[in-house]
Design a protein that fits this description.
Layout lengths: L2 E5 L3 H10 L7 H24 L5 H34 L4 E6 L2 E4 L8 E2 L4 E3 L8 E5 L5 E5 L5 H10 L6
Amino acid sequence: MLFDVRVRPTEEEWLEGLHRSGLRRAGKGRLIVQTVAMVIVGAVALAAFFLDGMKEPMSAIIAAAAFLVIPVMWLGPEQQMRAMAKTAAEEGSTVHLWLFEDGFDFGEEVTAAYYAYDAVHYAFPTDATLPTLVLRTKSDEVIVIPKRELTDEQWGTLLRLTKQETL
């Protein structure tokens, strides 16, 4: 074993990690396309409602539903991530991380089936104000490792093993 460390990310670091982890599948481009589609559906349904002399309320209901989905698409996942980050920070989620030359493990104890470095998605923040390494396993477990919790030597080793550039 190269080293083991216990890290306790803050709420801000958890949130940053969740954003960078790629767990949210819909990017801004997809959200924009979905929003345009909902606006078109809503506009067509609303136009049908008025052109039909406001006799059939189902068109108005479809229009209202389409317009109500838009803010949920944009705000729902963000609120969920904020709640997850807050819960993780409030529970004092401490991540125990073990680093080996050929992989890593985390949790309560080292297991025989630890993760190989090349089988994990890595993400770094683009600004150096919150230097954090985010690991996401194939089973979508997210591990947030703040630089402030590691020595310079440990951070350098972690960067070397994950084949990342220095921050």
